[in-house]
C-alpha cells in the first residue's frame, strides 16, 4: 500500500510540474523570463547526464562541460561552415558526444576516485585549449556567429522565444523519462551497485568497465544534445562554453537538487538559476549574497532538496506503516495475544 501511495504521489508531482511548465509562458508578462527558463531547461538536460555518471554510478566527471561544448560546436561548425540544416547537425552532435565519450571513458575509467576526477578535469581543459587554439576548425577566440536555429514546421517558428521554450521542454521531458527508465531498470541498479562499491559489484558478477563506460557515454550524449540546443537558441558560441567553470556550475545544481534522484537535477538547476537572477541587480556584489545562500542550502540539505525530502518521506511512511505491514516485510507475522499465551503455557 505504501509503495502504491508513494508511486501515486511522485507521479502526480511530475504531472503537476509538467502542467506548470506548460502554462508558464502564458502567465508571465516578460519574454525575457521565458528565455531564462528555456536556458535553464537546456542546462537541466546536461545536468541529467551528469547525474547518470556521478549520481547513479558514483564517478565524478569534471569534463562534462567540455562535452557540452563539443555538442554546441558540432552544431555551429556543421551549420555555419558546411551549410547543414539544424536537425541533421543536432543529430551529429549526439554522435560526436557518444564517440568522444567512448574514447575518453575507455581511458579514464581505468582510474578510480580522485584520480579519475583529476584526469577528466585535464580532459576538460584540453577540450577548452583545442577550441580556443584550433582556429581553422573552431574560429578560435572569435567564436562562431549566425548559427542556424532549429527549423520549424507549418506556423511554428523556433526562432521565437515561446516556441523554442516548448521545444526545449519537450526534450527535457524526454530526458527525464529516459532517466527514469534507466533508474528503474536492471541497468540503473547496476550503476548504483558500482557507486556503493566496486568490489561488491564485481562479486555480483557485474562487468565494471563495460557498465562504467556505458554510463559515461550516456552522460556525454545528454551533454552534447544540450550543447546543440544551446547553440540553436543563443546562435553564438565561443571558447568560454568549454570553460571548466560550467562543469562546477552543474555540480552545484546537483548538490542543491540531490545526487542520484530523478527530480534533483531539475530542481537544483531551476533553484540556482532563479536565485542568480534574483541577485543579478547587485552586479559585482551578487556572489557575496549568492555564495552564502548556496552554502546554507548544502549545510541544511546535505542530500539536496529532493534527496532530503525523499529521506523525510521514507521515514514518515515507515513510522505510519501498520504493524502487520512491518511484520510482513520482515518475513513473518506478529503473534496474537492468544498465541503468545499458548506459547508461554507450553513453555
What features would you describe in this structure?
- With 347 residues, the chain is an all-alpha fold.
- It has a domain at 24-244.
- It is 76% helix and 1% strand.
- It has 16 helices and 2 strands.
- It has helices at 2-27, 31-56, 64-81, 86-108, 113-133, 135-138, 161-184, 186-196, 198-203, 208-234, 245-257, 264-278, 286-300, 304-320, 323-329, 337-346, and strands spanning 144-145, 236-237.
- Strands 1-2 form a two-stranded antiparallel ribbon.
- α4 (86-108) packs antiparallel against α10 (208-234) and α11 runs parallel beside α14.
- The longest helix is centred in the middle third of the chain and has 27 residues, at 208-234.
- The chain starts with a helix and ends with a helix.
- The model is unreliable at 1-9 and 326-347 (pLDDT under 50).
- Name the beta content range: under 5%
Catalogue the unreliable spans: 1-9, 326-347
Side-by-side strand order of the widest sheet: 1-2
Radius of gyration: 23 Å
Determine the fraction of residues in helical runs and give it as a percent range. over 70%
Please state the structural category: mainly alpha
Largest sheet: 2 strands, antiparallel
DSSP helical segment count: 16
Membrane topology: Multi-pass membrane protein
Region (Disordered): 321-347
Protein name: ABC transporter permease
GO molecular function: branched-chain amino acid transmembrane transporter activity
Amino acid at each position: 500500500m505504501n509503495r502504491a501511495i508513494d508511486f501515486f504521489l511522485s507521479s502526480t508531482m511530475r504531472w503537476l510540474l509538467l502542467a506548470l511548465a506548460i502554462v508558464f509562458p502564458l502567465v508571465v508578462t516578460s519574454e525575457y523570463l521565458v528565455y531564462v527558463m528555456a536556458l535553464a531547461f537546456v542546462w537541466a538536460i546536461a545536468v541529467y547526464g551528469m547525474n547518470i555518471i556521478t549520481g547513479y554510478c558514483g564517478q565524478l566527471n569534471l569534463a562534462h562541460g567540455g562535452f557540452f561544448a563539443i555538442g554546441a560546436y558540432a552544431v555551429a561548425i556543421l551549420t555555419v561552415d558546411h551549410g547543414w540544416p539544424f536537425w541533421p547537425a543536432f543529430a551529429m552532435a549526439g554522435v560526436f558526444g557518444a564517440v568522444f565519450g567512448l574514447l575518453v571513458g575507455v581511458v579514464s575509467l581505468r582510474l578510480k576516485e580522485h584520480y579519475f576526477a583529476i584526469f577528466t578535469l585535464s580532459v576538460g581543459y584540453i577540450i577548452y585549449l583545442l577550441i580556443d587554439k584550433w582556429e581553422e576548425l573552431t574560429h578560435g577566440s572569435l567564436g562562431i556567429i549566425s548559427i542556424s536555429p532549429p527549423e520549424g514546421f507549418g506556423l511554428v517558428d523556433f526562432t521565437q522565444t515561446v516556441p523554442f521554450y516548448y521545444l526545449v521542454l519537450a526534450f527535457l521531458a524526454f530526458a527525464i523519462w529516459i532517466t527514469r527508465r534507466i533508474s528503474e531498470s536492471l541497468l540503473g541498479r547496476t550503476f548504483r551497485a558500482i557507486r556503493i562499491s566496486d568490489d561488491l559489484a564485481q562479486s555480483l558478477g557485474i562487468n565494471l568497465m563495460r557498465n562504467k563506460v556505458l554510463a559515461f557515454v550516456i552522460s556525454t550524449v545528454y551533454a552534447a544534445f544540450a550543447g546543440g540546443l544551446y547553440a540553436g537558441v543563443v546562435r553564438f558560441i565561443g571558447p568560454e562554453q568549454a570553460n571548466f567553470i560550467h562543469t562546477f556550475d552543474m555540480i552545484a545544481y546537483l548538490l542543491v537538487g540531490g545526487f542520484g534522484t530523478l527530480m534533483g537535477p531539475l530542481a537544483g538547476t531551476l533553484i540556482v538559476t532563479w536565485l542568480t537572477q534574483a541577485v543579478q541587480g547587485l552586479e559585482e556584489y551578487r556572489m557575496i549574497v549568492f555564495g552564502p545562500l548556496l552554502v546554507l542550502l548544502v549545510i541544511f540539505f546535505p542530500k539536496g532538496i529532493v534527496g532530503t525530502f525523499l529521506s523525510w518521506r521514507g521515514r514518515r511512511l515507515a513510522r505510519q506503516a501498520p504493524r502487520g505491514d512491518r511484520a510482513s516485510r520482515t518475513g513473518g507475522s506478529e503473534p496474537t495475544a492468544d498465541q503468545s499465551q499458548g506459547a508461554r503455557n507450553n513453555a
